[in-house]
Design a protein that fits this description.
The protein is mainly α. 60% of the residues lie in helices and 12% in strands. It folds into 2 domains: 106 residues, Arc Repressor Mutant, subunit A, CATH 1.10.10.10; 85 residues. Helix 3 packs across helix 4, helix 3 packs across helix 5 and helix 6 packs across helix 8. It starts with a helix and ends with a helix.
């Protein structure tokens, strides 16, 4: 389409880290005021998912373009969004594409933001590591359980040890746990141990 040829859709780079605010800063008051209504929060969330024009935002949150313009002005004043690029409509009208300044907001009472950024990054790294380990354990448990069920009952030694029964129970329980729940619980356990260490 002609509109696809006319659109210059190269938004500026968005800061991959969240905007960090402390409760006593002037910026925090402006951000909280700008996000004070449900509509402004919906607009901000929509922009976090992808850059959009005012008309696209209006359609996304089911409101008028005038309401979007009002909230975008407030969000821009709080330094949460900025004009990205310009697109052209089918009729040739210039439209601003709005983008978030950063990937979210984090309010903390810790003035050492560099330390906080490192800690958030390490927690995310641990969560990813825990999820990977948890997936590996679940896959291993399913494979071992499949192999053990192939054995005929007559081939098992009579009077198996309590350790073998416990291992069989653990493996069968691990194989039946939903992957999402397993990932969540494994990640939660790793984070709890790490957080208590830190």
């Amino acid at each position: 389409m002609l509109s696809d040829l006319l659109n210059s859709d190269n938004p500026p780079a968005i800061d991959p880290e969240p905007k960090i605010l402390s409760p006593d800063s002037d910026d925090t008051g402006a951000v909280l005021d700008a996000l004070g209504s449900e509509t402004s929060r919906e607009l901000y969330a929509a922009l976090l998912s992808e850059p959009r024009t005012a008309s696209e935002l209006a359609a996304t949150v089911d409101t008028s373009i005038q309401t979007v313009s009002y909230h975008i002005d407030n969000l821009q004043e709080a330094d949460l969004v900025e004009p990205g690029t310009t697109r052209y409509s089918d009729r040739g009208r210039e439209m601003t594409v709005w983008v978030p300044v950063s990937r979210g907001i984090l309010v903390t009472d810790n003035p050492d933001t560099d330390r906080l950024r490192r800690r958030v990054a390490s927690v995310l790294g641990l969560a990813i590591g825990a999820a990977t380990i948890d997936v590996g354990v679940a896959v291993l448990a399913q494979r071992v359980l499949r192999r053990s069920t192939r054995l005929a009952p007559a081939s098992l030694p009579a009077g198996s040890s309590p350790h073998a029964d416990l291992l069989a129970w653990v493996l069968s329980a691990a194989a039946t746990v939903d992957l999402g729940i397993g990932l969540f619980l494994g990640g939660l356990a790793v984070l709890a141990v790490w957080w208590n260490r830190g």
